[in-house]
Amino acid sequence: MKPSSVLCAMALLGALSSAMAGGLPEPSAYRGEIRRDANGHLVAEPVPASDPADGEPAPKTAPRHPAAATAKSAPMLPQAASEPRLIRVGPQQAVHSLAAAARLAGDGDTIEVDSGDYIADVAIWKQAKLTIRGIGPNRPRLIADGANAEGKGIWVVRGGEITVENLEFRDARVADRNGAGIRFEKGYLTIRNCKFENNENGILTAGGANMYLDIENSEFGHNGAGDGRSHNLYVGEITRLRVKGSYFHHARVGHLFKSRAEENHVFYNRLSDEIDGRASYELEFPNGGIAYVVGNLIEQSSQTENSNIVSFGAEGYKSMRNELYLVNNTIVDDRPSNGNILAMKPGAQKLVALNNILVSRNKINPNLEGQISNNPNADWDQFVLPQRFDYRLKAGSSLLGKYMQPPTPHGVSLVPQREYAHPAGSRALSVPVRNPGAFQTLPAKS
Fold first, then answer.
1. How many Å apart are CA 206 and CA 40, to the nearest integer?
2. For the chain, which has fewer Cβ within 10 Å, the N-terminal or C-terminal residue?
3. Which residues, 6+ apart, have CB-to-CB distance to 369 below 8 Å?
4. Whole-angstrom distance, CA of residue 178 vs CA of residue 155
5. Which residues contact 319 (CB under 8 A, 6 or more apart)?
């Protein structure tokens, strides 16, 4: 016998002796037939999943689209212990539903969702790190159709660092009238290029330390149950909220934007209830905190049921620091009798209201304590096409060059770097900041 063979035999005997001493290990689960994938790697042939994951409800109605197939009909993907995977979801893919993908995905995976309607396809996401993105010519639509995850909404997210891109969430309804496109309960959630429409809440969050929510270039419209307690966006007592380049409009009785976050960065958005909107506040921070509100177009409709446009501290301050920085916004009051630009409860440590253009007969309440300066009133004749929400200043506007340098609180620059670009986006400024209001770009010379 060759020396190498002797060594192998000795090793085998040693392993057998150890196994007999401690009991033989359980046999591994059957993973299917072995084959090679497209990259030439050996993998197990997928086998069907048998039971739903913990706590994940099945759709209430039968799917009407192949993309909404239940998890029992979706094959299991081969498990990769060391490398992140790409999981494709769609009617022509091995995985047909988001519910199945949520069970199959591991930490670090990426899920790509083909265009189409995913009916009653609800899911719970618990991974430590995950990216879920829509691909194809049209944004994939997740339509609740009466289904929900845990009685909360289309998706429940309570993981680690999860990114959601280019998806649409529609029609979430639950028994307590608080159904959300996404219910966010734990971790760090990033939303990019998404749309939330006709839900009882667009996004609804729990409260908790070390929760972070970033929203970029997304649209929230026609959300709310009509009871005033549900909103386009409703953020609980989380650590930080950042919203940039997003479009909030037509909330049903509730607010366009409501946040109880400890720290809020609201930059370069459009919050407009428009001609037929009946939202309440356009922007509310009911428990104060720190709010940086910079470079936004904020418009109150003529049909609003609440005269306040921006509200701060209405339900009592809870944070150690309660500071509002309202800088370089264009605030439009279309209420016939005019509304209140800023309702602010006494007790906050800081108010800076600077460089805002007020398209209103009213001013910011001069009795509020803080730095309130350079907030000029303006009529429609100062703007390019205000009836179409083009609130860029005209070339001959008397407001040109009336900018004042803002402070830099807590190291946060309040000098605008971008401006809102409709729909749901923002663009970098190509000119120096010289004007009050949300827009620095002037119309091209004819």
1. 45
2. C
3. 346, 351
4. 13
5. 262, 287, 288, 289, 290
Among 42, 232, 233, 68, smallest CA distance to 146 is for: 68
Q: For 142-156, what is each residue's pLDDT tens digit? A: 999 999 999 999 999
Whether 26 is covered by a domain: the verdict is: no
Q: How far apart are the first and last CA of the chain?
A: 94
Buried b (16+ CB within 10 A) or exposed e, 82-93: eeeeebbbbbeb
Smallest CA-to-CA distance from 216 within 237, 240, 192 is with 192
- As a whole number of angstroms, the distance between CA 248 and CA 271 comes to 5
Cβ atoms of 288 and 258 closer than 8 Å: no
Task: For residue 391, give its domain range.
Answer: 207-446
| Residue 417 near residue 441, CB atoms below 8 Å | no
Number of domains, the chain: 1
Angle at the Cα of 306 from the Cα atoms of 390 and 260, rounded to 5 degrees: 85
In this prediction the pTM is 0.81
Residue 11 within any structural domain of the chain: no
Q: In what order do the strands lie in the sheet with 247-249?
A: 117-119, 141-143, 168-170, 195-197, 219-221, 247-249, 270-272, 297-300, 330-333, 357-359
Q: What is the DSSP string of 184-203?
A: EEEEEEEEES-EEESSSEEE
Structure tokens at 153: 């909404």
Instruction: Please indicate, yes or no, if residue 281 is contained in any of the structural domains.
Output: yes
In a domain, 40, yes or no: no
How many residues does this entry show for the chain? 446
Q: Which residues are paired to 320 by β-bridges?
A: none
Each residue of 207-260: pLDDT tens digit? 999 999 999 999 999 999 878 778 999 999 999 999 999 999 999 888 899 999
